Inverse folding.
């Protein structure tokens, strides 16, 4: 309790935020790493997932691969990459990319694959090209599931981006690592609270986004969800 | 003219859905395929717009092998009513009907106007225009499917049990509408149904299909009814059913047509 109060008092001290390398800067670094990693990973995983869902090929292989990738412990991977790449942001970004890819891939291919085949058949038989089918049939119908995948990837990355401080002085994880080292528990707790707040904020934004985007009445066909769980790193 | 030249289709699992089938659909005529479930009617229909490519044999439209044509352009030039509807669940009724005019380059307002006109043609209220397919009855969905196929005014229409889910009164008026359309605009129509009465009402020629697309008989409705080629056709057409065996009776000076069991069907005009 004492520690928690001290953590809050740390959070309420303006200098904690404004000083060089303070909470405000770290918060933005953390957010920046999260958004950057998810965007980069999505740039590869989403088109790949959509193509796999559209052609319905290699789905089993990709499901297995994604499952295997989920099981990789991020901390272990980061240590290996850190040894190979040295100090800096490179290793954590790579490790986080591997973390983000499976839910993105799964969301994209599961979402597209779950689109009613009769709607796709109808679209094709009136003369839509494959690109038109993807753009104006499969993507809109799969969007809730795809966004669900992005949401799940974002949450995992924002929580795990604390590990960036393991090899570089970036993000909110710094408070946790340095707090551990110097036994400054209030600072450690304050850092954790900030990570939690950021995660809740991002999740809330996704919830709002998904709510505002439902135009057509959701028919009972489209109820695919993708698993959110993964192994703790 | 659509020509099926010894076409065979084998799906992945082996046994042929359609085996060595040949027939023609003359230009500006309505040919109706009738046959039991699984006899390959849908498979034959989908070979025309290349939704299915034959394993062997050829399908020709005006003497051009369809496999030499670009499938997307081919499909845009042919109206196709799918057995299952195949509407886009996230598009409204009017958007669904406007798809093909839009694909063919019509502006949005033009395509919309065209789509609304098509709603009138298939007897649907314009109030339904902004509904989604899931908010329509099965019969209404089918009529939207028909409207979509007609919207770009194609010369060839492929219709796969298009009226199966609509009630008998609407069905009759749609059959009449189709007949009119065919007569006035000279469409070439390949039509699939289970309902021999529908075939008799619509067809210039009927093709009775047995297993694997084998043609049991082809002929005009009158020929099929009066000279069934074999027991299978006779059974299918129901030539022995009481309602096909009409009689003439006299009811107080009016000539009444009755079925075999004496139930009145109508009066005779001379
Ligand atoms: N995509 C497919 N893959 C494998 N087999 C198929 C496929 N489509 C159809 N078949 C098989 O081919 C045969 C003919 O099917 P088709 O759909 O052409 O019949 P149909 O005459 O239209 O039947 P119905 O009157 O029930 O619609 C059936 O045995 C069916 O199981
Ligand atoms: Mg069929």
């Amino acid at each position: 309790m004492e520690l928690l109060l001290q953590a809050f008092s740390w959070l309420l001290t303006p200098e904690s935020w404004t000083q060089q390398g303070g909470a405000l800067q770290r918060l933005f670094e953390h957010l920046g790493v999260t958004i950057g990693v998810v965007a980069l990973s999505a740039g590869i995983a989403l088109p790949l997932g959509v193509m796999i869902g559209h052609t319905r090929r290699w789905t089993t292989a990709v499901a297995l691969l994604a499952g295997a990738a989920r099981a990789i412990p991020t901390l272990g991977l980061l240590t290996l990459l850190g040894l190979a790449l040295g100090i800096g942001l490179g290793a954590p970004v790579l490790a986080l990319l591997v973390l983000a890819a499976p839910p993105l891939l799964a969301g994209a291919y599961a979402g597209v694959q779950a689109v009613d085949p009769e709607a796709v058949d109808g679209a094709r038989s009136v003369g839509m090209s494959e690109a038109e089918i993807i753009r104006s049939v499969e993507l809109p119908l799969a969007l809730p599931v795809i966004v669900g995948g992005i949401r799940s990837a974002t949450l995992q990355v924002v929580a795990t981006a604390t590990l960036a401080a393991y090899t570089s002085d970036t993000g909110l994880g710094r408070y946790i690592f340095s707090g551990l080292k110097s036994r400054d528990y209030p600072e450690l707790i304050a850092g954790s609270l900030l990570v939690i707040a950021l995660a809740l904020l991002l999740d809330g934004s996704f919830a709002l986004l998904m709510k505002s985007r439902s135009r057509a009445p959701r028919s009972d066909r489209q109820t695919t969800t993708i698993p959110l769980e993964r192994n703790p790193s | 003219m659509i020509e099926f030249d010894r076409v065979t289709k084998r799906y992945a699992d082996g046994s042929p859905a359609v085996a060595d089938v040949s027939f023609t659909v003359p230009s500006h005529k309505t040919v109706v395929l009738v046959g039991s479930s699984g006899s390959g009617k849908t498979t034959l229909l989908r070979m025309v717009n290349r939704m299915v490519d034959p394993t062997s044999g050829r399908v020709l439209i005006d003497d051009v092998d369809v496999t030499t044509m670009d499938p997307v352009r081919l499909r845009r030039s042919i109206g196709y009513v799918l057995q299952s509807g195949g509407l886009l669940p996230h598009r409204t009724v009017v958007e669904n009907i406007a798809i093909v005019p839009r694909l063919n380059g019509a502006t949005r307002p033009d395509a919309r106007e065209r789509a609304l006109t098509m709603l009138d043609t298939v007897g649907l209220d314009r109030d339904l225009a902004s509904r989604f397919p899931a908010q329509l009855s099965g019969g209404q969905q089918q009529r939207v499917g028909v409207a979509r196929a007609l919207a770009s005014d194609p010369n060839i229409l492929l219709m796969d049990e298009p009226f199966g889910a609509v009630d008998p009164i609407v069905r009759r008026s749609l059959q009449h509408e189709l007949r009119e359309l065919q007569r006035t605009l000279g469409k070439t129509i390949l039509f699939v149904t289970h309902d021999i009465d529908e075939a008799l009402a619509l067809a210039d020629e009927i093709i009775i299909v047995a297993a694997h697309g084998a043609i049991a008989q082809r002929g005009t409705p009158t020929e099929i009814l009066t000279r069934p080629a074999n027991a299978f056709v006779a059974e299918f057409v129901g030539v022995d059913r009481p309602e096909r065996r009409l009689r003439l009776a006299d009811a107080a000076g009016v000539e009444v047509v009755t079925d075999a069991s004496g139930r009145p069907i109508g009066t005779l005009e001379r």
